[in-house]
Amino acid sequence: MTTTSAAEPDAPARSHWAAVATVTVATFLVVTAEQLPIGLLTSVGSALSVSEGTAGLMVTLPSLVAAVAAPVVPVLAGRLDRRLLLIGLVALTALAGLASALAPTYPLLLAARAVVGVAIGGFWAVAGGLAVRLVPPAHVARATAVIFGGVGAANVFGVPIGAVIGELAGWRVAFGALGGLGLVALLALLAVLPPLTAAQPVGLRHLAEQLRNPGVRAGVVATFLVVLGHFAAYTYVSPVLQDLSGIGAQLVGPLLFGFGLAGIAGNFVAGAAVARRPHRTVLVIVTALALTVLLYPLAGNGPVGGIVLLAVWGLAFGGVSVSLQTWMIKAAPRAVEAASALWVAVFNLAIGLGSLVGGVIVNAVTLRGDLWAAGGLLALAGVAVWSARRIPGLR
């Protein structure tokens, strides 16, 4: 069942690949903006006299705000041209980066980070399903993979480069550079993004209708469990590599770089496969994730096992975003924006909760206990995906 109450405009007759590439640049910006503080926690904490734990709110807060903003921004935007909405959200990201660079106190810095959360949620609610507006149906899966390639590129290049800038020139310069990148993305969107008329505004009724769509509902549940399980474990991947696998601290950075490269590869492999067999592709990805995390306490006790499992983990998780977003497009082809808004809200909520749950388990039990729990959540996600095997359009 799919609802047509919030119908999408018809697919374009020709491809706008330049616009797809520009949205990818904007994706790179938004994900870098979300995760940039990860490499700056110590320097920000020292400069503004807060603990590293408190400084970590710079990462948690935007995720939670984005979870609220994802369904709210499309509703408030009404019939506003989505081109103007995307441009406005990218401009907001750039301004928030500059405000972060200039913030004299930590509360003001957190306020700027909350603005980033609004931009993240609104951006993904629109951009996640934008491929259907930019290319003909035959090319949607590939265009979606290209757009989500910006996520992997940000993890591999954006966050590490930001950390290097912060180390060499200071954390304020790193945030300022983010604002500069936002200006570049803004100009590119102005130059090549075509008008994207909203055929019918997304309302609260449309969001509620999508929760009655069995394909969307299964995708939302699977997304929540996958992201929750992944971040419950991955947030603590550094101590896992060092304490369980016996890998030196100096190798953690290069290994996480390799994790990101594997993720980029997984994104494009999944993008090609999900167009043909969406259900099977998502099931394979989630099963691979569950097995990898569950095997880590058993087979990741040495450097070789730890490195091999980390590479498989990166490859599998790299396919999560593009495959689940494509799932949503196929489950609600006439209500992509409403379904995407729900998906983004759940995704970001699960990021914040996953890190929180992982921390509680690590403190109360052990790193191994955290991996077992995360693997269990991923296994439950596999059950949710398997249960949707008979839904039309997802087979």
From TrEMBL:
Molecular function via GO: transmembrane transporter activity
Cited InterPro entries: MFS (IPR011701), MFS_dom (IPR020846), MFS_Efflux_Transporters (IPR050189), MFS_trans_sf (IPR036259), Tet-R_TetA/multi-R_MdtG-like (IPR001958)
Domain Major facilitator superfamily (MFS) profile residues, every copy: 19-395
GO cellular component: a single term: plasma membrane
Transmembrane segments: 57-77, 84-104, 110-132, 144-165, 171-193, 214-236, 256-275, 282-299, 305-329, 341-365, 371-388
CDD domains per UniProt: MFS_NepI_like (cd17324)
PANTHER family cross-referenced by the UniProt entry: CHLORAMPHENICOL EFFLUX PUMP RV0191, PURINE EFFLUX PUMP PBUE
Matches recorded under PROSITE patterns: MFS (PS50850)
Entry keywords, A to Z: Cell membrane, Membrane, Transmembrane, Transmembrane helix
Membrane topology: Multi-pass membrane protein
Pfam families associated with the record: MFS_1
The keyword Transmembrane helix is assigned to this record: yes
Compartments (UniProt record): Cell membrane
Protein name: Putative MFS family arabinose efflux permease
Primary subcellular site in the record, as a coarse category: membrane
